[in-house]
Amino acid sequence: MRLVLSTLFGATENCDIYCFLSCFKFWRFFKIMEQDQSSYRVHTFGALQIHNVNAIFPLTGDKPRSLLAYLIVRPRVPYRREILADMLWPDAPPDRGRRNLSDVLYRLQKVITPEWLRVDSDTLAIQPNANLWVDIWEFDNLMASPDAENFQRAVELYAGDLLPEIYDDWVLPERELRRSQ
Fold first, then answer.
1. Whole-angstrom Cα distance, residue 104 to residue 116?
2. Cα distance between residue 30 and residue 26, in whole Å
3. Displacement of CA 93 from its chain's centroid (Å)
4. What is the largest CA-CA distance in the chain?
5. Please, what is the angle between helix 62-73 and helix 94-111, to 10°?
6. Structure pTM?
7. Do 120 and 113 meet the contact criterion of CB atoms below 8 Å apart?
8. DSSP single-letter state for residue 114
9. Alpha helix ranges (H) inside the chain
10. Pairing of the two strands 40-43 and 56-57
């Protein structure tokens, strides 16, 4: 086994088997990623990250991260602005919540590609497109497949709890659902 792994990874005999297995896990993960040629990737397992081949796009602030995460976990569904504002600012008056939502949306649109969002005067939705790959979407698709190889790929995508840095109530059942699969 050590010979096979050292041949694959070019490692020396001084590395133990755990080093090799760790390398193999990352190698397999990146092989999965090579199969999808999307320009942008959003990772929700382990931590929310947005990146492309060249850079990681920083999304600062709890509210922009929470809004993007909410829309990503529930793609293609148009959400009324009032509902989103109330979710993010439950104690704010409705007009203040809408203003806050507009500010957060403006900051979010400075970081992400415009075609990701479908925005109109009353609703917001994330628009899955060929330019965007999201790990939770891939995970859900793989888990829905009866193929054992797809199950293994889904396990490899699960790099930690779903959105562990987000503490909103809506994420808890989503996190538990993915954890229990």
1. 15
2. 6
3. 31
4. 66
5. 80
6. 0.76
7. no
8. G
9. 2-9, 17-35, 62-73, 81-88, 94-111, 135-144, 148-157, 171-180
10. unpaired
Which DSSP string corresponds to 25-68?
HHHHHHHHHHH---SEEEE-BSS-EEE-SS-EE---SHHHHHHH
Instruction: Compute CA distances 69 → 20, 24, 27, 64, whole Å.
Output: 34, 30, 27, 8
Single-letter amino acid, residue 67: L
Residue positions counted in the chain = 181
Per-residue pLDDT of 96-155, as tens digits, reads 999 999 999 999 999 888 888 999 999 999 988 768 899 999 999 999 999 999 999 999
Helix (H, G, I), strand (E, B) or coil at 72: helix
Q: What is the pLDDT of residues 10-42, one digit of tens each?
A: 544 444 554 444 444 444 444 444 444 568 999
Q: What is the pLDDT of residues 40-62, one digit of tens each?
A: 999 999 999 999 888 898 889 99
The pair of three-digit structure tokens given for residue 90, joined into one six-digit string: 């439950």
The tokens describing 172, both together, are 């808890």
